[in-house]
Amino acid sequence: MSATTDLTACIERILANLEAVARTPIDHYHRRRFVADLLHDVYTLGLAWSGDPALRGEVFARLAPVWRHFADEGPFELEMFAARVSSSALIDAEGWVGPCRRRSALAFFVDLAGAELELTRLEEDLADVDETLRELATREGYLRDEERDPGVPREHWWWWAPDRSGP
User: Fold this and answer.
1) With 70 as the cut, is the pLDDT of residue 45 above it?
2) Is the entire prediction scored with pTM above 0.85?
């Protein structure tokens, strides 16, 4: 399977999940699952456009229904996801890589949709998450190079935490 096919599959999965959300009444659990799945795919897409910035415009355009959804519904589910990024239970289950991936997914989402959506509250929440990650990094961080996902942008400092000097 080619990288383009993988990216197309991510976009199609996001849009199919959004369509399912739109046509059926869903509860809080389903909304959380929708956002978790969305951000998992946005993470994959973000790694791809980090390596090929030309992809960013295509991804942005194809995900226009997602931006409309969050413009109409608000980013509450994203804010709830952000609150769970640095959960100690998740760190215990996944190690430091889990919070790094989730925080990067949110960074990619903000990078992609930030100009389209009002994300001030989410960005404030992310500042709090970053503070917590800095504190946790002294005991949870220290990933080896092979533990970092290829393509992670240098500005995603949490992958290299607690090292303040950057990658």
Assistant:
1) yes
2) yes
Does residue 56 have a pLDDT over 80? yes
* Sign of the dihedral defined by the CA atoms of residues 31, 69, 7, 79, in that order: negative
**Cα separation of 2 and 131, whole Å?**
38
**CA 8 to centroid of chain Cα atoms:** 18
Other beta carbons less than 10 A from residue 29's beta carbon: 8
The Cα 115–Cα 113 span in angstroms is: 6
The beta strand positions in 28-114, using DSSP E, are: none
Q: Could you say which DSSP state residue 149 is in?
A: P
User: Would you say residue 1 has pLDDT above 50?
Assistant: no
57: left (phi over 0), alpha (psi -120 to 50) or beta: alpha
List of residues 6+ apart from 112 with CB closer than 8 A? 42, 45, 46, 56, 59, 60, 63
